[in-house]
TrEMBL record:
Organism (species): Lolium multiflorum
Protein name according to UniProt: F-box domain-containing protein
Gene3D superfamilies the record matches: 1.20.1280.50
Domain F-box: 15-55
Pfam (any one): F-box
Top-rank taxon: Eukaryota
Length: 394
């Protein structure tokens, strides 16, 4: 024993810093934050801004709106939920880096992957006295969309961002012009490109009766194309509350250059509440049948853009997912999102008001946190991006 104790321990293998950097560049950002605790040298390596820009990112959480705002006079009602369900928010939902606007008022309009679109009021809460700001909460950089007649003068429009983390140096904004506040008919489209710094405008090619609802329509951007759900009104005096309305619910797409216009039927076209999402490079459609005798989750894939063919890939009995034998009276579950990298769906249990994830591969449900204090829709997903914008964008 004494002889063994006198043996010298072999020193740990040391790797060159450049090789360690190459390894760490393949580690998600959350892991980099944890690795800072290994040693002082690792803390320095993991804090390197160039490494942070290269590290792959994944879904980190969800933005949402609180049912009750704080009493500090600066609260926009925006909250951020970490996917882990615990710990400090990855981003500050108060957006204090927008120091020129937060004292007056700020409204979160859209989140596309890593970028946010905010309506920032300049001197008063009047809707026409506002700037439309695109910002990256990870880098705290922001830019104001340039003026265009539709953006600052139109009374009715819907605007959404287009951003792909694979090309972080640019983004697009899609402005859907609508005929009036009542019917939602799309009359034209304007597209802004951060590369050119210009808006281009065109008349809608989806048909005169194609309508969009800023609250209910679902929007997804990938493959340089905006995808969103619409409805087609068969009556000139369309009224949402009128059960006699004949509506055709569809998926429409438009590329960033405004050249390719497409329109497909949704796989579940009896209702507008068919959620869409991008996962693993393919478009998914999701629906929960809330009928009296059914409570079934269905998930489809858009297999063929040329024919608009959807393929049913998964079904599940929702009450059984939550360990219940039958549906509660009045029970309603909200579909939130699909994970961009794996077969996981996020939804809110209508009985417990818990935000949960459902893995379609092993059919397991995991509780994330309570969603009781938040409005259930929308819950836009957020993936951080630490790449810097070109100086002419900021």
């Amino acid at each position: 024993m004494a002889r063994r104790s006198r043996k010298k321990k072999q020193p740990a293998v040391s790797l060159p810093d450049d090789l360690v950097m190459e390894i760490l560049a393949r580690v998600p950002y959350r892991s980099l934050c944890r690795f800072k605790c290994v040693s002082q040298s690792w803390q320095a390596l993991c804090s390197d801004p160039d490494l942070r820009k290269m590290s792959p990112q994944t879904l980190s959480g969800f933005f949402c709106h609180a049912r009750k705002e704080r009493d500090d006079g600066r609260d926009s009602g925006v909250r951020f939920i970490n996917l882990s369900g615990k710990g400090r928010p990855l981003v500050d939902p108060d957006f204090l880096f927008l120091h020129d606007f937060v004292s007056i008022g700020l409204q979160l309009v859209n989140c596309c992957s890593s970028l946010l679109l905010c309506k920032c009021f300049k001197t008063s809460p009047h809707p026409w006295d506002a700037d439309w700001v695109v910002c990256n909460p990870a880098t705290e950089k922001w830019t104001v969309l340039p003026a265009t007649e539709a953006l600052h003068c139109s009374k009715s429009f819907t605007i959404r961002l287009g951003f792909d983390p694979a090309t972080p140096s640019r983004f697009e904004a899609f402005l859907l012009k609508q005929g009036s506040l009542l019917d939602g008919r799309i009359t034209g489209v304007a597209i802004y490109s951060s590369e050119t710094g210009q808006w281009i405008s065109m008349k809608s090619e989806w048909g005169d009766e194609t309508c969009v609802d800023d609250n209910d329509s679902q929007f997804v951007f990938f493959n340089d194309t905006l995808h969103f759900t619409t409805f087609h009104s068969a009556r000139d005096d369309f009224c949402v509350e009128d059960s006699r309305c004949e509506c055709d619910y569809s998926l429409v797409t438009l590329d960033t250059e405004g050249k390719t216009w497409r329109k497909f039927p949704l796989p579940y076209h009896d209702t507008s509440f068919c959620s869409i999402g991008q996962s693993q490079g393919r478009l998914h459609a999701m629906h929960i049948d809330h009928g009296e005798n059914q409570f079934i989750l269905s998930v489809w894939l858009l297999e063929d853009y040329a024919t608009g063919q959807w393929t049913l890939m998964h079904t599940a009995n929702v009450p059984q997912l939550f360990g219940r034998h039958c549906r509660y009276r009045g029970e309603f579950c909200s579909l939130i999102a699909v994970h961009p990298e794996c077969n996981v769906i996020f939804l809110i249990d209508g009985v417990t008001s818990m935000l949960v994830s459902y893995n379609m591969d092993d059919r397991k449900v995991r509780v994330i946190c309570s969603a009781r204090e938040y409005y259930h829709l929308p819950f836009p997903t957020y993936i951080p991006c630490f790449a810097e914008w070109p100086s002419d964008v900021i």
